[in-house]
């Protein structure tokens, strides 16, 4: 067992002053980890232990920790000012660059977080349609806003798979929000068609993760997304791809480029800015023009702040180099890791499997990958938790829910070390020692 004295002392101090001892609910699975430094694909904790980082800032650090283009751009921009609260060159350049990336985009706006971007996109859809209801999929996550933090997880109160009930995810969320959210099962077109035949004309927006990752990576293919596009067209519904994870990760044009299906609006964030806080939304002119003259409101003190904007420019420029070679590289790496994990799980006869498109992948505690969110409810969550903890003790840091984010800083040395340690951990799991 690694000595964790310094980390434990810091965690105790934190727990007295930082509510719950964590800065975000999403960090609960690695509470106790106290990190002091990050370089490339690796981080170091307060006790000097190293970890290969597959959290990568929840996907934000696609170029790794302290990547030179981002650090240089930020340092240079600091000399000119951190924020202006008015238009500046970085905002102009970034808007032009982002609009060129997204197939759905004629125009964009920036926010400080994905949660805010989703709120703005939903508001635009409501304003454009004059309808109030939003349709979302069970198991998909779109930030923590009261009105959409709904049915991210199922419970005994979730009802039938074909007609999930809308469920609040936290005490403190008003029950009234549920009257405007309709929930559908992912990857089940007949169920969705039935829901739309009841509610279709009341629904402003269908929002989804086109490549869902928040309950494990699920690639449902282009034909399914195309069917969603057609259903939205038929019912006058604004189609919103929430690309906060898939954007600037599956490619410069995100999931819409990967699958060749174009939504009306998209949201993006995370991987676009090498770890600096910036996100945004983009879409067709008729929708985005509603922001003209503040007909529809979207605000934010830190929107397009100069430091985040230059970090985003540096990240996008780096990702765009050599015809997107970075994406080919992280896809290849992620696929090799997926194959390597599956070989290890098979050899140790463990009910685990890995799956995903490559740039973000998931380990599932089941013999085969899920096709629908509710498939994951029968997975062995305790086994996944043991795997996560055992890997952490070996210096491999993955998401508690089994995801791994691949960045351009991961290379052959990380791959070999990860597979070697996974093999060791798998043998302890088989023996029930972990
Ligand atoms: N949408 C998706 C698909 C996400 O995964 C997340 C964050 N994990 C968000 C929205 C919210 O983004 P943020 O944490 O930047 O508010």
From TrEMBL:
Name this polypeptide is given: Aminotransferase class-III
Domain of life according to the entry: Bacteria
Cofactor (UniProt): pyridoxal 5'-phosphate
Family that this chain belongs to: Belongs to the class-III pyridoxal-phosphate-dependent aminotransferase family.
Keywords from the UniProt entry: Aminotransferase, Plasmid, Pyridoxal phosphate, Transferase
EC class: transferase
One GO MF term: transaminase activity
Keyword Transferase: yes
UniProt-listed InterPro entries: Aminotrans_3, PyrdxlP-dep_Trfase, PyrdxlP-dep_Trfase_major, PyrdxlP-dep_Trfase_small
Entry EC no(s): 2.6.1.-
Pfam families per record: Aminotran_3
């Amino acid at each position: 067992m690694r000595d964790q004295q310094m980390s434990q002392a810091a965690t105790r101090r934190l727990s007295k002053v930082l509510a719950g001892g964590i800065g975000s609910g999403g960090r609960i699975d690695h509470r106790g980890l106290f990190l002091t430094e990050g370089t490339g694909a690796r981080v170091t904790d307060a006790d000097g232990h190293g970890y290969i980082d597959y959290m990568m800032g929840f996907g934000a650090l696609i170029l790794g920790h302290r990547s030179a283009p981002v650090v240089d751009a930020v340092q240079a921009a600091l000399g000119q000012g951190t924020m202006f609260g008015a238009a500046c060159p970085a905002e102009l350049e970034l808007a032009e660059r982002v609009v060129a990336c997204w197939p759905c985009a004629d125009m964009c706006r920036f926010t400080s977080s994905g949660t805010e971007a989703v709120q703005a996109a939903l508001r635009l859809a409501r304003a454009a349609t004059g309808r109030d209801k939003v349709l979302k999929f069970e198991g998909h996550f779109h930030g923590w806003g009261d009105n959409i933090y709904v049915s991210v997880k199922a419970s005994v109160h979730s009802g039938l798979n074909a007609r999930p009930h809308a469920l609040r995810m936290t005490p403190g969320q008003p029950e009234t929000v549920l009257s405007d959210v309709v929930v559908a099962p992912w990857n089940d077109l007949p169920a969705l068609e039935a829901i739309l035949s009841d509610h279709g004309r009341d629904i402003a927006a269908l929002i989804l993760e086109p490549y869902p990752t928040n309950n494990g990576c699920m690639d449902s293919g282009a034909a399914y997304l195309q069917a969603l596009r057609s259903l939205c067209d038929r019912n006058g519904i604004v189609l919103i791809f929430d690309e906060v994870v898939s954007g600037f990760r599956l490619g410069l044009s995100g999931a819409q480029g990967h699958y060749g299906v174009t939504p009306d609006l998209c949201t993006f964030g995370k991987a676009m800015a090498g770890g600096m806080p910036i996100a945004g939304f983009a879409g067709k002119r008729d929708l985005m023009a509603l922001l003209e003259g503040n007909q529809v409101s979207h605000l934010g003190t830190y929107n397009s702040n100069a430091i985040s904007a230059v970090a985003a420019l540096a990240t996008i420029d780096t990702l765009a180099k050599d015809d997107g070679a970075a994406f080919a590289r992280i896809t290849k790496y992620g696929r090799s890791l997926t194959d390597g994990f599956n070989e290890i799980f098979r050899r140790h006869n463990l009910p685990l499997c890995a799956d995903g498109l490559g740039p973000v992948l998931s380990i599932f505690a089941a013999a085969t990958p899920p096709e629908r969110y509710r498939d994951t409810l029968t997975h062995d969550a305790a086994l996944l938790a043991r795997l996560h903890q055992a890997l952490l003790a070996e210096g491999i840091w993955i998401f508690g829910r089994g995801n791994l984010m691949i960045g351009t800083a991961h290379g052959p040395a990380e791959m070999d070390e990860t597979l070697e340690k996974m093999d060791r951990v798998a043998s302890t799991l088989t023996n029930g020692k972990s």
